[in-house]
Amino acid sequence: MPMQDVTAIFDHYRVSTRSVWNTAFWPDPDFRNGDSFEPFQSVERILFDALVLAKLDKEIPADDIFRKPIPFFRVAPSSPSVPIMIQRPSTQNSYWDDPVDRVTAGKVEMHFLAFFDWNQMDYRDFEYYRVWIATFDEQPHLAGREALIKRGYVNVLLAEE
Hints:
By secondary structure, the protein is of the alpha+beta class. It is built from two helices and nine strands; from the N terminus they run βααββββββββ. It has helices at residues 7-25, 37-53; strands at 3-5, 70-77, 81-83, 85-86, 102-104, 108-116, 128-136, 146-150, 154-159.
């Protein structure tokens, strides 16, 4: 299946959205009490639709953006082996500490979910991709889990249907 590298499109979205949060929402004292998160999520989805999906002639329901994996956006290691933080199953909190902490290029299929920062209510860098592991040849029991991977370690590829 041929794939198109769309990393630059995702980086453009990342920088644009980061700027909107860091200059318009986060510094505003009225939003510091947590009220900024919901309006920002709406803006974030609109920007993703306009700067990523529309540019690539793709559509998904707005309510699914950042909530469901997008199978045609594959997040792939850009070198032979890269660090990853895989979510450990938990009923209450998210723990990103599964003992498997590396993935090998060509041995894992990860679908884009969202960008991620540890502190959602502070200055944001969108440093990580939050992904859904579709398949993992070396660790098949981890398929279906979410993971975090630094954006500098991966490329985003558009899978042709």
